[in-house]
Amino acid sequence: MTLKKISRWQLKNKYFFASVAVFILVILRSFVFRLIGNESVYLLPARRLIDPTFLANDWTVGAGAGGGSLSIVFSSLMTPLWLLLKDSLAVALTGRVLVWILLLYALARLGKQLEIQWYAFTFGIGIWLFSGQSLAAGEWMFGGVEQKCLAYAFLILSLASLIQSQIIRAGIFCGLSICCHVLVGGYGAIALTTALLVCRREYGFWRVVKFALTAAVIGLPLLLIAIQYTALGSSSDIPVQPGINIESFLVVFRNPHHLDPNYFLDPKRLIEVILYGICTYFAVTLTVARAKAKLLLAFLGVLLAIFIAGLVARQVEAFWFLEYYPFRVADTLLPLIFWLTMPALIIQQGQMLLRRPEFKPNHSPLMIPLTLLMAVPIVWQVPGVVLEMGRASKRFIPSIWQYTTQTEDTFEEISHWIRDYTEKSATVIVHPCKSNFWITAERAMVVNQKAAPSNVRVLEWHHRMVNLNGNKKFKEVGFEICEELEANFPYLDLQHLLSIRQAYDADYYLTTVRRTDLEKTLIYHNRDYYLYDLSGYSLQLGQLR
What we know:
Blueprint: H1 3-30, H2 39-42, H3 44-50, H4 59-62, H5 72-85, H6 88-113, H7 118-130, H8 147-163, H9 167-180, H10 182-198, H11 200-203, H12 205-230, H13 246-254, H14 256-259, H15 261-264, H16 267-287, H17 290-315, H18 319-322, H19 328-353, H20 367-374, H21 376-404, H22 410-421, E1 427-429, H23 437-441, E2 444-445, H24 458-468, H25 481-488, H26 494-504, E3 508-511, E4 522-525, E5 530-533, E6 537-538, E7 543-544
């Protein structure tokens, strides 16, 4: 075995152990034994590939209002897990682990290509994980299993391959990223192609064309599906209501936490974004080889330019642009690259301060105070990271206990009763923010808050949401509307409740309040929830037949 091979093995081995260490941190942070995030929504299309009759009577699922066709690649990859494991939680947990492994492999490849020390890689990625993973718009990679996580993994692999000048491989990875998530992959493809154009002297113009064509050919089918889905307009069975701008409704009401900078970007956050951008520029420039740094900075520059375009779009109310998540990719990749390179810069300057013999200073003396200035985000984040690690351990350990002792919370318990003792074709009037109901009860909902369509069908989604809020207009936006529903949904007027039953062909009403006016129809309850059978009620008389 030559010294060169031994050296390569040691480098790989160090990154392997670094990835294992980061994987343990990811487990601590996100491996809770319950469905999290949007898993209850994004795992459904995979199950429906196996059994198309599953929840076929649900408006969102059966009518395709939730955009299940957009996740066809992700769903196809998840289908074997459904076939093997059957149980939704087992599918989610296994899917998380597999996606996390792919993400860590992609990050390790990128770290090695940027020649980041393995210990700097471990520290930096660990801080990034527990500092929130994003700048402002709430984006993330490591969490529940979703198609965007796979898209980020392939996008990072594409970037690492471009740094290695593996053009065809990079194009294939970029195309796969588009197939997994059109927006993540699409913005990534724009940024990578533009970065290659900036670096065309190093790569050559025809390599740019080769990369772009490869990515486009692979990603085109999903792009066409996305265009067809979002372009659904007044020709559908849902008339467009006069005076309602669907784009502004999606941005300001439905997804302000991701799409509306007036909602998520206060002045303090904006300053933080600017500082991250400046510090990332210096960290990359001073730690990464010049040619690689040029490509990486051009890539990040395009993503940041799209982010800035989103800020401008909000000021001129260009909601047609904002509805396509311009903040998404930069929101997570900019802090990722910062935390990937900043610890390496600190170590590099530390070596100079310690006057290590093998260190050859090639920067001006101003680099030391500049490095200390750029280290401020690390010092600033550490207390929050420590607190988040404490909170994560408090989530992780109880979830293990709950899983091993087969302890169910009251909502899961009554959902499982509904699954076991009601007809499969039943539709339940249930709190829209209880998105896990689909998976745990395996019954149709009138509407699911998390599964809002991204086209004209969002008007019907909103109409159903208002209906379940007692026909009261929402005062809040985004996830805050769940608090209003919590106050109004359990107390729906009997006549209004029966009108909902007739309008949506609903059979049962699940609420947190014991209703004296429905007492005769109570069929099951536990400590917190009450299930009423509405099928015996006459709408006209508001009484039992």
